[in-house]
Amino acid sequence: MAHCAHSRLASYSHNTRTALVLRKRAAKTRAASKGFADGRTNTTPGEKAQTPSLGKLLNGCPLFFVGDDTEVNERVAEAFAEQLRGYTPLSTSKVVGEMNGVEDGDAVARDEGEDAAALAEAAVLETASTFVRTAVACRGGGGGAAARGACWRHIHGGIGVWLDGRDGKPQANRKVLPQDEAYSLAEVKVVFEACTDVEVTTQSIVPKVEEALNALMTNFEREAEKKGMPEGQRSLAAKKLLYVKLGARGDWPEIQPPEWQPE
């Protein structure tokens, strides 16, 4: 499987058109603020405050949904953007298509090849990783940037969620696909039963993702507290922000000193 070509990717690094298209699409698809909210769960007078909500734990950290079904990735991203206050859904496939004057990333792949489509998507991911409060749906099908391990340096700027669809076969009989190695870099993996009704599939996935994200964020804070880390460094969201501020150099999860440079 081809990797992201860093020499060519460099030409996209500060592509202002990529940023403009992303911001334009984000403005168009700004989600309504409702759902998980951004503070603690509701309490009545005299009650103790409950566990912080998912919105509070994420603190604006972007989410990246990966997996082989592009439509499922997009629908789940949209569902979370509707429930997380202030989050905006973005589809890398649609942004790549808009940048190239076609429908989506699949059209770019048909016209110019999978490598060209993945390279353009990698540029979108690079820009998207610097945004806050976004739910990013990555292109699936095994040909997208998320299927290439070398392209994950920017996805690591947020929390990766692998939506792993199954066709009803037992786990032992499931064929391991080449892209699975890259998808396994995600912090969260949610297995779901594929269904012809995408809406039904989405409704079954969202609660699983919410539960997994809550567990991920709370466990990180618990372990950080045990290690005696300063309060401001105990959240996964804060660590992700530091990673992006240092340039998303590919040194996740062991962030190196500022002077460190990748080989």
Residue share in helices? 40-55%
Question: Could you say which overall geometry the principal axes of the C-alpha atoms support?
Answer: globular
Number of strands: 5
Series of H and E elements: HHHEHEHHHEHEHEHH
Helix/strand structural class: alpha/beta
The main sheet orders its strands as 2-3-1-4-5
Radius of gyration: 18 Å
Query: What percentage of the residues does DSSP assign to strands (E)?
Result: 5-15%
Question: How are the SSEs placed, and which strands pair?
Answer:
Blueprint: H1 6-9, H2 16-28, H3 54-58, E1 63-66, H4 70-83, E2 88-91, H5 92-99, H6 105-112, H7 114-128, E3 134-137, H8 152-155, E4 159-166, H9 180-183, E5 188-193, H10 198-226, H11 236-245
Parallel strand pairs: 1-3, 1-4, 2-3, 4-5
Helix pairs in contact: 4-10, 5-6, 5-7, 6-7
Structure, briefly:
With 263 residues, the chain is of the alpha/beta class.
Overall description:
It is a single chain. Helix content is 43%, strand content 10%. It is of the alpha/beta class. The protein has a five-stranded parallel β-sheet. Helix 4 (70-83) packs across helix 10 and helix 5 packs across helix 7. The longest helix has 29 residues, at 198-226. It is globular. It starts with 5 loop residues before the first helix and ends in an 18-residue tail after the last helix. The model is unreliable at 5-14 and 31-51 (pLDDT under 50).
